Amino acid sequence: MIEERVVGDILTALDAHDGLFDLLQEEITTERAYAILAALEASPTPSQTAQWARVPVVEGVLREGGLLADPSVTWVADYAGSGNAVLLLGREPRAKKVWMFAHLDQISYLVDPGEDGSYPLMPFCYHMQKDGARAAIALGPDLGGGGLEVRARGTIRVAGSGVTFEVTEGGPLGPGTRVVYDSDLRWDRATGRLTGYLDDSVACSAILLAAGVLRRFPVELLVGLTDEEEGPPGDANQSFARGGRRLLPWFDPPALAIVSDVHESEAMVRGPGPRNLRPGDGAVFAERSSSGRGTATPPHLYALQQHLATALDRRGVRLRENWGGYVSRSEDINATAATPNIALVGVLCSNRHYALDAPAANLLDVVDLAKVLVAYTLLAHDPSWPLVGQERPAASRPYVLGGRP
Question: Does residue 388 sit within a domain?
Fold first, then answer.
């Protein structure tokens, strides 16, 4: 049930920032979103290679946007040797009110010994491609240039339980090779439809757009752009999201952790698709990940998100509730070690991990997501947080969203 008093309090808190929604409209545009997304997608980044692939791209985006020259911004390409890139807004080195996570790495495959140009692959990810062949490239380290180079071109072929890389050009291949899909980013300007790798470049793009706006406000924000989020699936949480785990010892627990990734727009093996939602409807939020194997948003925080969605809709920002749709685990499995207050916010994406076709999302949703990230962060910094629109319960100590003070 939506309470108008709570919606009003949220709007009062956000409107206290003069011209906020006009600023969002001016600064967060489809053109800027696409420029960042295209730069990220042009740099293939299998897990464990972000430092040599997309991190330099992110640094270029930050430099072009003026963030690296801002004294309130700290950029560390490889934070504490963790393999993750970190952007810090504010004065505090450890105490960040809000954490914001998205992953830079893409799904990839390790190569086993093969013959006649056919190499068995070991998925270093949640493998989803159905039977058939899709264009792919084999990447290896360029020790001279410090990046990655294409060692071979071919296809990832799936036949039953077998997954192989079939070389059509280049080779031979050996250990240390990573095979990724040969992605071609496309944007239909008329509809906003995107096709490409997308997971999780869309959320990284939204976060970078949001950071460009948030640096104008007195916020304490940790942006973690992680590596090694992708990994082999399992009922436990130790086999993936390994990179982000290395950041936890370096920061104090936040008041809020926002984890942004793609949300499945169709049914998965372990759960149904969203109800009455499709790419292009706006940014989305969900209550739980991996049917509870990952995390679940505490009831009071979730209710606040429902009211935030209503409030933002009145300012032209779309945030839709994805109730019941299956959402995969992501960096939330790391954030939960520091705080129960986790928000699962992202965009819908079809054919995640190239299940049946190239993944597809909508750029308009990425724009909405960036605006949501700004609004959510500012709300978390409001003096009313975490009791926005709420009366304190009759108790000897204040109630805090998701836990105790």
Answer: no
**Would you say the pTM of this structure is higher than 0.90?**
yes
User: Are 113 and 102 in a shared domain?
Assistant: no
Q: What would the pLDDT profile of 244-271 be if each residue is shown by its tens digit?
A: 999 999 999 999 999 999 999 887 766 7
User: Is residue 398 situated within a structural domain?
Assistant: no
Question: Where do the DSSP E strands lie in 267-386?
Answer: 283-286, 319-321, 342-349, 360-362
Instruction: Tell me the C-alpha distance between 296 and 287, whole Å.
Output: 6
- What residue type is assigned to position 87 of the chain? L
Q: Roughly how many angstroms between the first and final C-alpha of the chain, as a whole number?
A: 27
The full length of the chain comes to 405
Residues 50 and 105 sit within 8 Å (Cβ to Cβ): yes
- Which residue has 């004294």 as its token pair? 71
User: Could you read off the pLDDT of 123-148 as tens digits, one per residue?
Assistant: 998 888 889 999 999 999 999 888 99
Q: Which two three-digit tokens encode residue 323? A: 């109730």
State whether 61 and 196 are in the same domain. Answer: yes
- Cα 184 to Cα 372: distance, rounded to the nearest angstrom: 28
